Amino acid sequence: MATIIRKFEEKDAEALAKLDKIWEKEGISLGMNPRKAKDFIRNREKEICFVAEQNNKIIGYACGKKLTYKSKKKIFYLKKGEKVVNFDSLYILKSYRKLRIGRKLVFALIKEAKKESMDSVMLVADSKDQEKLISFYKKCGFDIILTRMKLKL
Q1: 4-139: CATH architecture
Q2: Of 48, 55, 82, 146, whose CB count within 10 A is highest?
Q3: What strand order describes the sheet that includes 4-7?
Q4: pTM over 0.85
Q5: Which residue has the higher pLDDT, 82 or 34?
């Protein structure tokens, strides 16, 4: 079965909303809920969003919001005026994982970010299996620039 990777279209909103609900029920994130599909439509010009489709069924998506860092505060990994894609959503239905679909979606998003003259793509790796997720993103070319940790008392 061929997987088609294509840009998100308004007609995909209902399918993405269903995926969002499955994602939340799956409980694989550490607390960050997926952004809602309606946000992608409402702010379409500020989004880069791709879907993976097999047999006319949306089986996954990757989305990020285009931002320009404007704060006067200096952050070591962002410069004022830097154009960044805040890559905040990647989800593949469980039965389609390990087929390199997530990787294809990530590379489609990166390619579009370059095409739109963005400076970088940033993300927060949020999963109950952090090591696996970090390994995945490293294989896609991402570098770790910040690590947050917590000691529960």
Answers
A1: 3-Layer(aba) Sandwich (3.40)
A2: 48
A3: 4-7, 47-54, 57-68, 83-92, 120-123
A4: yes
A5: 82
